[in-house]
């Protein structure tokens, strides 16, 4: 019985001692963490204070530099700029500017500086400041001083010493409290901050909590570029200390026996987390395998699609070529039949026979367009420098060589040379210029203008006419292959969109521009003409990497 009691007491004592040791260790760790937080906050605030004070000195020196280059400063200019300096640097009481060639200027905060004149009693100490500043070889800050009400202030002397440019002396008298309040306004919330210079307190903010651990009080020194050494102290306030406090420490002390349960829970949670992690790893591996399989399937289908596209293009080319001979045979036989038996045929039969010729011609035109589109898709691409003005003139001369009635007047502007494939560009110009000629036939004074401009660093060419035009809302559909809209909607804009056409002319143009890596767009209005804009330069260095180039 005694042994069980002793064992129970011993176990209780061990658990209690372990709880007390754990509580003390955690409390010490908490204090160390808080001390580290206070140390980091103090360091950050000191660093920011140094930067902010250097900005004040830089603002004063910038004003000194500006005034030193002005020569004689007008009173109205001086008053306005001095007051702006007071607003920029809070706490500034006096600003004195001493120019060796133009005398001294004085401004006091919140005075109507235009009418202000210091009394002889006021001017004596200010004159002494100027005399003292003239004796200084380098810029400096002097203080701390206390005014009649006990408020600390200091004096800043900026001279034209070896480290600064421009002649002249600037003296500024600044109250430490308002200045430091502005400089530390957003720094260290929740802390009591105190700034000392020697044995004078320049600034005090907030009330520190009582009975703080020694390590929770952090102090450090900052030194400005003018060699002033200030001591900055940080101490948490009571509100901040309450936010640091944690009731879990007392719970650990009084409920130490629950630690075992908590450790069991933590062990269980750790095992469950480990199990979830392994399941997640397995799922990730399965997902990676599925992604690899999917990528493999996509690659296979992409290759299969490319093969089918190639086969389709091959079949299209073969059909276009192979149908020429039967069409030629039909046309020759119809012509021979008309020559031999045309006179013997009744009137109705002759009319039926005459329909063969336009049908055969239409089929031939269809094959020509299909062959042209195939050539654009598969022709060898060779970039070379093209004289676009000369090439445009050649293509237009060929289109108008048949002596069509009322041909449009061609106006060619200043066209930069293009770096493109001559054959493809000739095809593009043939379609666009032919399109313009076709749709200006009914215009009284037809005009086709060819111009160029630079858009986003790329040359954009434009072929515009004053013909029948088209409805702008159908512009995007005009470049589709075999797209034939109703004439009322497009005014037969496509070169092939006359009766018997396929709607391939502008699709050939689009393919030419696509092979060059350029852009193509159209603008127009019904009855007012149309304009086609295109570029012949790739949009990135990787465009058309498979094409050849001639230099």
The CATH class of the largest domain turns out to be: Alpha Beta
β-strand amount:
15-25%
**CA radius of gyration:** 46 Å
Proportion of residues in helical segments:
40-55%
Number of helices: 14
Structural class: alpha+beta
Q: Work out the count of structural domains.
A: 3
Average pLDDT value?
A: 78
Report on the structure:
It catalyses: ATP + protein L-histidine = ADP + protein N-phospho-L-histidine. Keywords: ATP-binding, Kinase, Membrane, Nucleotide-binding, Phosphoprotein, Transferase, Transmembrane, Transmembrane helix. Residues 318-540 form the Histidine kinase domain. There is one protein chain. This protein has 551 residues and is of the alpha+beta class. The chain folds into 3 domains: 32-245, Beta-Lactamase; 260-322; 380-549, Heat Shock Protein 90 (2-Layer Sandwich). The chain is 51% helix and 19% strand. The strands form 4 sheets. It has a 5-stranded antiparallel β-sheet with strand order 2-1-5-4-3, sandwiched between helices. A hairpin with a 3-residue loop joins β1 and β2. α12 packs antiparallel against α14.
Question: What is the topology?
Answer:
Blueprint: H1 2-70, H2 75-88, E1 92-99, E2 103-108, H3 120-135, E3 140-146, E4 152-158, E5 169-175, H4 176-183, E6 191-197, E7 200-205, E8 218-223, E9 229-236, H5 238-244, H6 248-254, H7 258-322, H8 324-341, H9 347-354, H10 356-378, E10 382-386, H11 388-399, E11 409-412, E12 418-420, H12 422-438, E13 447-455, E14 458-465, H13 487-490, H14 505-515, E15 520-525, E16 529-535, E17 548-549
Parallel strand pairs: 10-17, 11-13
Antiparallel strand pairs: 1-2, 1-5, 3-4, 4-5, 6-7, 6-9, 8-9, 10-12, 13-14, 14-16, 15-16
Helix pairs in contact: 1-6, 7-10, 8-10, 10-14, 11-12, 12-14
EC number: 2.7.13.3
Domain Histidine kinase: 318-540
Transmembrane segments: 251-268
């Amino acid at each position: 019985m005694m042994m069980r009691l002793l064992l129970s007491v011993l176990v209780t004592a061990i658990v209690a001692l372990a709880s007390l040791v754990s509580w003390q260790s955690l409390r010490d760790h908490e204090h160390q963490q808080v001390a580290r937080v206070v140390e980091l906050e103090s360091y950050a605030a000191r660093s920011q204070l140094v930067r902010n004070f250097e900005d004040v000195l830089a603002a004063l020196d910038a004003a000194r530099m500006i005034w030193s280059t002005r020569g004689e400063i007008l009173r109205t200019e001086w008053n306005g700029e001095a007051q702006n300096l007071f607003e920029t640097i809070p706490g500034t009481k006096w600003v004195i500017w001493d120019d060796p060639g133009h005398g001294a200027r004085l401004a006091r905060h919140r005075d109507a500086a235009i009418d202000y004149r210091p009394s002889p009693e006021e001017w004596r100490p200010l004159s002494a400041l100027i005399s003292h500043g003239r004796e200084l070889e380098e810029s400096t800050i002097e203080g701390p001083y206390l005014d009649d009400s006990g408020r600390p202030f200091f004096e800043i002397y900026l001279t034209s010493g070896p480290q600064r440019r421009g002649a002249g002396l600037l003296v500024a008298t600044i109250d430490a409290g308002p200045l430091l309040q502005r400089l530390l306004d957003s720094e260290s919330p929740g802390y009591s901050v105190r700034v000392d210079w020697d044995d004078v307190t320049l600034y005090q903010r907030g009330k520190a909590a009582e009975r703080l651990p020694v390590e929770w009080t952090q102090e450090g020194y900052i030194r400005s570029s003018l060699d002033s050494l200030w001591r900055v102290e940080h101490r948490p306030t009571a509100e901040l200390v309450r936010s640091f406090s944690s009731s879990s420490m007392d719970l650990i002390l009084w409920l130490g026996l629950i630690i075992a349960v908590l450790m069991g829970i933590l062990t269980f949670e750790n095992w469950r987390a480990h199990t979830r992690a392994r399941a997640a790893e397995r799922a990730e591996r399965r997902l990676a395998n599925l992604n690899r399989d999917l990528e493999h399937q996509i690659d296979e289908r992409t290759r299969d699609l490319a093969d089918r596209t190639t086969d389709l293009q091959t079949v299209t080319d073969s059909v276009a070529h192979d149908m020429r001979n039967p069409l030629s045979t039909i046309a020759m036989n119809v012509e021979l039949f008309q020559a031999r038996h045309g006179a013997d045929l009744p009137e109705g039969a002759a009319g039926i026979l005459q329909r063969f010729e336009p049908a055969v011609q239409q089929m031939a035109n269809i094959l020509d367009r299909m062959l042209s589109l195939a050539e654009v898709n598969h022709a060898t691409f060779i970039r070379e420098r093209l004289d676009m003005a000369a090439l445009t003139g050649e293509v237009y001369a060929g289109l108008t060589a048949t002596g069509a009635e009322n041909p449009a007047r061609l106006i060619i502007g200043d066209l930069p040379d293009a770096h493109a494939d001559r054959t493809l560009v000739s095809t593009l110009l043939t379609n666009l210029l032919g399109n313009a000629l076709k749709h200006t036939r009914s215009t009284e004074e037809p005009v086709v203008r060819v111009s160029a401009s630079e858009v986003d660093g790329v040359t954009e060419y434009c072929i515009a006419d004053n013909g029948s035009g088209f409805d702008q809302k159908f512009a995007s559909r005009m470049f589709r292959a075999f797209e034939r809209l109703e004439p009322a909607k497009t005014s037969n804009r496509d070169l092939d969109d006359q009766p018997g056409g396929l709607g391939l002319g502008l699709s050939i143009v689009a393919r030419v521009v696509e092979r060059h890596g350029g852009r193509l767009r159209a603008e127009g209005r019904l009855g007012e003409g149309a304009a086609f804009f295109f570029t012949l330069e790739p949009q990135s260095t990787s465009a058309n990497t498979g094409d050849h180039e001639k230099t």
